[in-house]
TrEMBL record:
It holds the Pfam family EF-hand_7. One of its GO terms (molecular function) is calcium ion binding. InterPro entries: CALM/Myosin/TropC-like, EF-hand-dom_pair, EF_Hand_1_Ca_BS, EF_hand_dom. Gene3D superfamilies: EF-hand. The lineage of its organism: Eukaryota, Fungi, Dikarya, Ascomycota, Pezizomycotina. PANTHER family: CALMODULIN LIKE 3 (PTHR23048:SF0), MYOSIN LIGHT CHAIN 1, 3 (PTHR23048). Coiled coil: none annotated. CDD domains: EFh (cd00051). This is Calmodulin. It comes from Trichoderma saturnisporum. PROSITE patterns: EF_HAND_1, EF_HAND_2.
Length: 58
């Protein structure tokens, strides 16, 4: 959450994923966010991020 707003955007998520050696497309990043975006605001908060990461670790 680079700008400190409590939300992770596709851009911020892309930065994290690339640092982990992944190279997702913008569409894939949006799909990842949509999968756990409980309030449908187009970005994810930290609890939603943890849900997403837990699903990816399975």
């Amino acid at each position: 959450d680079k700008d400190g707003d409590g939300q992770i955007t596709t851009k911020e998520l892309g930065t994290v994923m690339r640092s982990l050696g992944q190279n997702p497309s913008e569409s894939e990043l949006q799909d990842m966010i949509n999968e756990v975006d409980a309030d449908n605001n187009g970005s994810i908060d930290f609890p939603e991020f943890l849900t997403m990461m837990a699903r990816k670790m399975r």
